Amino acid sequence: MVFMVKAILLEVYQLLSSKKGNYHVSNGIIERIFTLRYGANIRERFTRIAISNLNVENGQPKNTIRTERRTTGLPNGSNPYGNRAVIVPLDKSNVLGFVRFNIWLEGRAAAKTPPSCRSYCIGCTTVKSKIAQDLGELYKRSQINKDRIIDRNLYKLICSKELMLMSYEKLKSKPGNMTQGIVPETLDGMSSEILDEIIESLKSEKFQFSPGRRISIPKSQGGNRPLTIAPPRDKLVQEGMRIILEAIWEALFLENSHGFRPNRGCHTALKQVSAQFQPITWVIEGDISKCFDSIDHQKLMFIIESKISDRKFTRLIWKSLKAGYFEFSIYSNNIVGTPQGSIISPILSNIFMNQLDVFVNELKNNFEMGEVPKRHSTSLRLQTMLTAARKKNNITEVKQLAKRIKNMPSTDFHDLGYRKLTYVRYADDWIIGIRGSLIETRKIMEQVREYLLRVGLNLSETKTRITNLNDSKVLFLGTEILRARKTTFHRNKLSNILRRNPRKLRLQAPINRIRTKLHVANLMKDNNSYPKYVWLSLEHRQILHMYNAVLRGYLNYYSFVHNYGRMAAFCVYTLKQSCAKLLAAKYSLGTMAKVYQKFGIDLGTTHVGEIGKNKEYTFYKTNYKIKIKFLTSAEPSIQSLFGSKSIANLDNLNCSICGSTYRVEMHHVRHLKDLNPKLDEIDKLMASRKGKQIPLCRSCHMVKHRTPSKETYLKQKRGYHYQSLKRKGKDLILFKEK
Q: Which one of 35, 118, 347, 640 is most buried, counting C-beta atoms within 10 A?
């Protein structure tokens, strides 16, 4: 969860406030009586811990600590913030001989925290964020009663500065925040004042989403995919809407949905396929044609409004759908479709596609029959004959019958009393596995097609097909799903009888598909490795880093496949040869043999760091052993609700260069690689902090933007020289022509 704390050192204990949560006023009154009666003040009590009503602006950075002594728990009274006063450790000392008053002087006992405890600053007591509590209540409300209407004031949440800061924290480090939409605005220059302006426009309902910038991305199978780029500052509001919608609908989504959900992805979908598709014979490969562009706005809003009663919040969703886009300077506004590229589009599509999940789940309940399949009649008859032959001690007949049984399946795959249906969906791609007849499979596919037509969607005629797993392969999420072709046997250790293994389901990496992708990426040419000359200007260690990134991407994604060794060997062989050829061109060595002779089999190099330590860089060393490991997380919590990162703080900032507190805003960069510490002081500070943002006052920020970028500096290095300008004791690098 998100926590915010405020640490105050050595604060005087207030007399009329509570030391023990049960007694808010009594303790202070008694000590005041002691003071008036005996003419002496009770000694002042100091503590290192203070709890106050916290706003999001008071958030402090977190720290992972080891075992330490600290006050634990919250007060027991009705006010969870300690009555706005300090809470003292346990004190059992007598006061003026009145032993009966010892209980009034007891604070909460100090305890040792476990080593794995997450804490904020040494000695601070953590308090839940108000927005995290509200979102958690929404999630629990939907989880307990899924049919209950959410009647909370959600628009008040979206107007909360705390939620806006949470959205900013989520988006601030993503490269897309530096991509302009129609308006020339990015998250660069973000400040608390800008957030306040957005919130005020939301409160007055004057906020309007700007039209996006529409571009087209070519598809691998032909055609173009439209992508709408929204202004980055509109994305802050969209992210807040997404967090609220996710808190409500995450408890409503079924387990069969894996796309665009927290702690779910391609690996969780394929893991479900591996676990549940073992008895499946027929597979319906489904693909919805232009799913995102075909969602009807009216039907989508009907689903949302039937669950959420706050009409201010639903009107804000309607505004985001009607924002429109510009393409070639022409404004367009569709009545259907959620814009691809929008932050809120995935959750809206999942809300709409949840109808299909519920419908297929109803088909599953009506279709399935039986717990286990029957034994094959021929196999059962041969087993009876084998038992009789053993009783008669007829060795010849026993051998013949045992041989026939080994070559025959024991399960009846045509058992009409056993039927199964399994469904998995990732975004608009889905598959339905059926243990039944081909006629029943075609009937189910037609029922799904008719239902999609009723909600305004169409199945793709070219991508939707029925496949028999025993004969063909199914391609789902870039992975081939098929039945094992070879028959294997195992010998029972006790009876020493050789038994036939069932033909299990296999998940394989498509080698030909990977080869095609490497050709498109210019890492292969004519089925041979090819140097990627775009990286020729990079350093040796950077070239290794780029090739290792490509290799690790394939190895991590296909970590669960049964042909992992073959896939890894192909990728390592191809990419290492491409890297060797590129190094041969870079160092003018001519052949790969000379490259391996100079740099070794791992193409390694040594780089001297700033501290003077040598660091070795080599080509990624791969383990070819089959792992069958799905990279999934077992934690079912929602990341946006229970995230471990502290909320960003845009208030009370100081300029990192001059220390000014006037008009301080955040300077953003797209990538850390864009920084040049040798260029100016700001890049040096950002590189040392390894952060993409840094607070600057308006003056220093404008000076930074007048400074040429790294690319401009490298291009015009010969035509410029730089000089150092002293400004309030800090060095700024400016450029001036000779």
A: 347
pLDDT digits over 301-338, tens only? 999 999 999 999 999 999 888 887 666 556 666 666 67
- Give CA separation, 26 vs 103, 383, 604, in Å: 12, 85, 73
For residues 6-40, one letter each, b for 16 or more C-beta atoms within 10 angstroms of the residue's C-beta and e for the rest, the string is bbeeeeebebebbbbbebbeebbebbeebeeeeee
SS3 734: strand
| Length of the chain in terms of residues written | 738
Q: For the chain, first and last CA: distance in Å?
A: 56
CA distance 738 to 733: 15
CA distance 32 to 19: 14
**What sign for the dihedral angle of Cα 49, 54, 56, 57?**
negative
Q: Please check whether residue 535 is in contact with residue 543, taking contact to mean a CB–CB distance below 8 angstroms.
A: yes
CB contact at 8 A, 421 and 276 = no
Token couple for 687: 């590189």
77 has pLDDT over 70: no
Q: How far apart are CA 420 and CA 469, in angstroms?
A: 15
Q: Is a pLDDT exceeding 60 seen at residue 643?
A: no
CA-nearest of 422, 409, 466, 420 to 442 is 466
Least confident of 155-169, 428-442, 623-637: 623-637
- 668 has pLDDT over 80: yes
pLDDT at site 661: 86
Q: Which of 243, 263, 428, 423 is nearest to 349 (CA)?
A: 428
Long-range pairs of 368-374 with CB within 8 A, sequence gap ≥ 24: 368/419, 368/420, 368/421, 369/417, 369/418, 369/419, 370/415, 370/417, 370/418, 370/419, 371/418, 372/418, 373/279, 373/411, 373/412, 373/413, 373/415, 373/418, 374/411, 374/412, 374/415, 374/417, 374/418
Work out the pLDDT band at 677, boundaries 50, 70, 90: confident
Is it the case that residue 613 has pLDDT exceeding 80? no
Taken in order 121, 123, 129, 133, is the CA torsion positive or negative?
positive
Where b means 16+ CB within 10 Å and e means fewer, 103-139 reads: ebbbbbeeeeeeeeeebbeebbbbbebbbbebbbebb
Q: Is the separation of the CB atoms in 603 and 541 below 8 Å?
A: no
Average pLDDT, stretch 553-558? 94
Looking at the whole model, is its pTM more than 0.85?
Answer: no
Mean pLDDT calculated for residue range 413-437: 88
Residue 558 has pLDDT above 90, yes or no: yes
Name the burial class of residue 342, with classes exposed (0-12), middle (13-18) and buried (19+) by CB atoms within 10 angstroms of its CB. Answer: buried
Query: How far is Cα 585 from Cα 314, in angstroms, rounded to an integer?
Result: 59
Distance (Å, whole) CA 251 – CA 386: 54
Q: How confident is the model at residue 710 (pLDDT cuts 50, 70, 90)?
A: low
Exposed/middle/buried for residue 690 (C-beta within 10 Å: 0-12, 13-18, 19+): exposed
Cα–Cα distance, 555 to 544 (Å, whole number): 16
Q: Which of 201-210, 559-568, 638-647 has the lowest mean pLDDT?
A: 638-647
The pLDDT tens digits of the residues spanning 682-698 come to 888 888 888 888 888 88
* φ, ψ dihedrals at 445, nearest 5°: -65, -40
Distance CA 470, CA 571 (A): 29
Q: Give the pLDDT band of residue 589 (cuts 50, 70, 90).
A: very high
Ordered DSSP codes for 371-431 = SSPPBPHHHHHHHHHHHHHHHTT-HHHHHHHHHHHHTS-SB-TT-TT-BEEEEEEETTEEE
Helix (H, G, I), strand (E, B) or coil at 468: strand
Between CA 140 and CA 454 the distance in angstroms is 32
Going by C-alpha positions, the residue among 437, 427, 416 that lies closest to residue 350 is 427
Distance, CA of 287 to CA of 270 (rounded, Å): 17
Give the pair of three-digit tokens for residue 682. 């700001």
Closest CA to 571 of 556, 593, 592: 556
Q: Can you point out the beta strands (E) in 98-194?
A: 110-112, 118-119, 127-128
